[in-house]
Structures are given as structure tokens and as C-alpha cells.
Amino acid sequence: MEHVLLERLRQGPLLCDGAMGTLLYARGVPYEQCFDLLNVTRPELIQGIHREYISAGAQIIETNTFGANRLRLAAYNLEDRVREINFQGVRRAIEAREIVGLPVFIAGAVGPSGQPLQAPESGRLSEVRAAFREQIEALQEGGAELLILETFTSLAELRQAILAAQEVGGLPIVAQVSFYEDGRTLSGQSAASVARELYELGVDVMGANCCVGPAMTLEALQGMIGALGEEIQAAEQQGKRPPLFAAQPNAGLPTRIGNRFFYVSTPDYFADYALRFAQAGVRLIGGCCGTTPRHIEAMRKALDAHYGGGTGAVGQKEEAGQQNGLSASAQGQEASRAAPTVMPGRGERRSVIGTLPEEEVLLPQEGSKTRLQQKLEAGEFVISVELDPPMGLNPSKILAGAAQLQRDGVDCINIADSPLARVRMSCIALARLIQDHLGMETIIHFTTRDRNLMALQAELLGAHALGLRNILALTGDPLRVGDYPNTTGVWDVDSVGLIRILRGMNEGHDAAGGSIGAKASFHIGAALNLNVSEEEAEREIEKYYRKLEAGAHFIMTQPIYELAPLERFLKRVGKPPVPVILGCIPLHSWRHAEFLHNEVAGVTIPERVRERMRLAGDQGTEEGLRLAQELLMEARDLVQGVYLLPSYRRYDIVGRLTRLLREAPANA
């Protein structure tokens, strides 16, 4: 006889809850603290969050035990408290269910070990499996009714968790993998290969969670379901039970503001995707990082409206929510408000080291200017395109793309610094390769996320010696979204502090006031987000002034899709004293527009633009080019250049746009 949960999932979709860590952080718990220990030290806080999700309509709630295995708890000297923390985690969830009085399933949450794992290391595999088994036994003892193994980026490690769960036995197993924006796991597996392996392992429910937002998660699930099409069909024909599928995406990609993380996908957007997941055949639907009770409430209403209600009737939620002193909607609003919802100065090298006297080797020319700086000072309209460094050893494809863009008329190449906190080739190394192979200037995106104060200055000195002078000073994407979410960010200084360091080097000293032997000639850029609310605008403008005061020479904005945000900014601050380069991501389709608007922090696309893309149908690429060209021609008198970001590495699209801009008369 099949477990009651699996029988219920076969009848239709069940709604799981959303993020736990997001709400804990919003309520003042620092990321450095062990969230799992709160099951013991602050039980009322954990129970209260569970109650909010139940009141919002969740039919499955996950225990606050994501990191409660021996290997992760050892970082807090808590490895001897595995049973207590997991047992109490389940009890907090059960208590919440009893208080609210609605029938929900209690899922024991099991996350990765937090340590690197290589499949051939049999001893290591055994240790990891034992750690998972210890945790799962405690969860089952506490009363968990299913297991959700989630956020795994290594199939080797997930396999050990599944085997541990099967050894303990007795509970349905939901196994979820994290895919990245390229549709693959950290270890390179596609959705199809993941599905086939999980099917062979015999899990009850398989799926994807975390890392990306709803759109990319849906693509991953469609890949998984498609890969098992024959197996599903055969099972149905034989009267057997086919595999089930789960999806718990992040609320888009987070942005870091100050010391907090914010997610951009709205509850309404999640409600729409709840139906899309269900229509694709997904049966367990919920949220991960950045989602709140408001997201779950919107998803519940959408699913109930389409499927005729379920075990967590919407009509019961308001009354139940009052037990917490707030309605589910108000609680979610309270949580979501605070939730963690870039050129060579060629010409200095006069000889090969070791062939001439020391004083003639690599002496910087004080006051020399990059070609970009010269063009901006001459009032020329510049065009730059961003390229991401490769994730492997071979830069050939990126160099070929840069060469094509150079032929199209692009002035320089922006090189991101491990964007989305994913491991990529050094931006300094790629910039030097582009300079050597193409003689083309670059703008390096240089972040303070991964380097302490000493490393920041060491790499900047090295970049200068290599002839790389255009630097866009950035704080950097949060590590939580990247390949190594357990890595600790540095952030000794923020972007403003980095600008000050660069200015100090241009004055001839390091951050401590020590001489660096000569004055550097960095051309310093700063970022500006125009897509902000009225409340956030004051903060962004204040930071803009701080960046100018710190020594910024030019500004690069986040992408916009109408002139209004730029006009509002200029109305408030007047004509900037430095050149402004406007960001632009040409749209490819209506879905591309919806994804950027709803899932990418710092990007807002007006409804009229999205509607034009929708009406364009299969002519979306052409319409996206027209929209970008119209905007940039309108903005040409207000800014001094454009910064193009090619989606899906469509260098041909930004190349066409560059040619269109070059061919258009300056006063068009």
C-alpha cells in the first residue's frame, strides 16, 4: 500500500511552504548564527514561522533542520547535538500544526553536508552517508512524515543521502537538485541525466529547488519529466505508479543592499508559476530562498481557484492566522519588507623583463589616460558590451565573441567578476587575453566580495602593471546564490570604499597611506541603479553622491527599458559631473521580458514594453531590437554611452544593435 502522502500527490498538487532562513534573517538572526539550533534555543520563533506558513495555505511544512547534520553542525561545535536539534525541529512543526488546527504533512528537511565530496573516495562517502543516516533517524524519531533532501549540487552526495534514507526506511523520499542558469548542476549534469539517475535510485519524488527562480526551475522540471517520458508512459500502461515531481524555486536572484539581501519575484508571479508547474505535471510545489507566507498565500489561492480547493482551505487561513496576532497576509508583508528577498593603458611596457636595466622596465606613465577615458572626455558616444569569463580553462569562445563585437564597432568589453557568485576565470586574466589578442580595451568589474583589503590592493597593483586601468568598483553578488553558498564573503569594504582605494592609488598611496612608488592611472567607474522605488531612491542617490565624492570618474547604470527612470534621476540630481553610460539588455521574447522583470534584481520592465513583446510573438528578437534602439536614441542626449548585456551569449544581437546605433545620425 502506497504512503498516504504519495496517494494525495497523485490526486493533484500539494503546496509546500517557503523559506525559513529568509524569515529568520528578517527577524534579526544573523547568517553567522546556527539557524538549526534555534529549534532548541528559540522554539517560539521557529514554531511561529511554521504557523504563518500553515495559515497561508501550506499543506506541507519543512522542519528547520536543513543544516542539522553532524558535518555542518561541527562548525558550531554542535556535532554531539544532532539528535536533539533534529528531534526538536520536528516537534516545533508538529506543535504549530496542532495550534493552527489544519491538516498538514511534516517534512524532515535534509540539506547537503556542506563539505566537498568526490565520488571515488569510498571512506568519505561512508562518512557522509553515516551523517545523513544519523540525522534522518532523529527526524523520523521526532515524527517526520516524509523527507525532503534539498539543494544538492552533487549527485554523488545526494546518492549517499538517498541511500541513507532508504536504509532507515519508512518515509517517502523527495530528492531535489539545484540547477544553475545554464540548466546544469554544479558538477555539470543536465536535468535529463539527473532525472534518469534519481529514477534508477528509486526515489518517490524528484525535482529542483533553490539557486534560480521559477522560469528556469520550470525549464529544469520539463527536462526531467521529458527525460522519463517513456518510463512514465510504460508505468501508466502497466497500472504502476510513475515517478512524481517537485519544484521549490527561489524568489528570483537576490541583490545585496547594504548588508541585507533582497529578492524580487512577487507573490503574483509565483501564483502564476504555481499553475504552470501544476500544468507541467509537478505535484509538490513550494518556494525556497526569498519566498514568504505572502508567496505561499498567493500560490494557494491560484491553485484552489484552478483545482477547486484542497486540504488547506483558504477560508480557514485568516481565522487561524489571528492566533499569531496577525493575518497571514500581514505576517508575510512584515517578513518580506525586511527579507533577504569595467582598459589597458598600453604603451608603458618598453622591454621584456631582464633584457634592459631595471629602471627601464614597466614604469607607469603618470597621468596617462585610457582610450575609453579619452573618448568620454572628448564627448564621443561609447558602446561597451559585457562578457562573462569562461567557467573552464578555454577562453576561445569568449575571445571569438569579443573579436566579432570589435568588428561590429564596440569600443570596449566589460568583464564580469565571477557573476552570480559562480566560479569563473579571473576577470584580470581574461582582460589581459583580450588586450593581447585583440588590442581592445576592457572594463573590469572588480568586487569586494571575495578579497580582503590586502588582496584587493595586491590584485589592483597587478592589474595596473598589466595595463588594465578601467575598473568598475562593485560590492558583488551575494554568495548564497552561487556555487559555494557556504563560503564566507569578505566585504572588508564596499564599492564606495573600493573607489576610495583606487583614488588613493591614483594619488600614489595604498589604503594605509604607504607609498606605492608612483601615481597610478586608474579610470574609476561606479554603478547606479535607476530601477528603484521612491523610498529606495533617496538611498541610491545618497550612495551616488558618496561614490562621486570618493572619486568615481564615470557611472554605469543598471539596464532600463523606458526613459522615465533616467529622467527622474536627472531631475533630482541635475546633470552629473561625470559621464553616464546607460545599461541595456536587448529583449528576445515575451518570456525573456517576464523573466527579467520578475526574477532579476535591479531590472524593471514597464507593462507597455512587455505587452509589445507579447504581441510580437515569434518576432520577439526584432521587436526587442527596435525597443532598445528607440530607447537609446531617445537617451543619446542625456548619456554618453551604452553598456549592452547579451542574454544567452547572443553576441549577434548586441552586434546588430551596435551597428544600428553607429549608422544612426547623432541627432536622430
Offer a quick outline of the entry.
With 668 residues, this protein is an alpha/beta fold. Helices cover 46% and strands 13% of the residues.
Secondary structure elements and pairings:
Elements lengths: L3 H8 L2 E2 L5 H6 L11 H4 L1 H14 L3 E3 L7 H4 L8 H19 L4 E6 L11 H21 L3 E7 L2 H14 L4 E5 L13 H11 L3 E5 L4 H14 L1 H9 L6 E5 L6 E3 L2 E3 L4 H14 L3 E2 L7 H15 L6 H8 L6 H11 L32 H7 L4 E6 L8 H13 L3 E4 L11 H12 L2 E7 L5 H13 L4 E5 L20 H13 L15 E6 L5 H17 L3 E6 L4 H10 L6 E5 L5 H10 L7 H10 L3 H16 L5 E4 L6 H13 L5
Parallel strand pairs: 1-10, 2-3, 3-4, 4-5, 5-6, 6-7, 7-10, 11-12, 11-18, 12-13, 13-14, 14-15, 15-16, 16-17, 17-18
Antiparallel strand pairs: 8-9
Helix pairs in contact: 4-6, 4-13, 4-14, 4-15, 6-7, 7-8, 8-9, 9-10, 10-12, 12-13, 13-15, 17-18, 17-26, 20-21, 23-24, 24-25, 25-26
Main features:
TIM Barrel, 8-stranded parallel sheet, 26 helices, alpha/beta
State the CATH topology of the largest domain: TIM Barrel
- What's the count of strands? 18
Q: Tell me what the CATH architecture of the largest domain is.
A: Alpha-Beta Barrel
Structural class: alpha/beta
Tell me the domain tally.
Answer: 2
Give the mean pLDDT: 87
Shape summary: globular
Output the number of helix runs.
26
Radius of gyration: 26 Å
Rounded to the nearest angstrom, the distance between the terminal CA atoms is 73 Å
CATH superfamily of the largest domain, called what?
Homocysteine-binding-like domain
Q: What characterizes the major β-sheet?
A: 8 strands, parallel
> Low-confidence spans: pLDDT under 50, at least 5 residues?
310-363
CATH class of the largest domain: Alpha Beta
Task: Specify the helix fraction band.
Answer: 40-55%
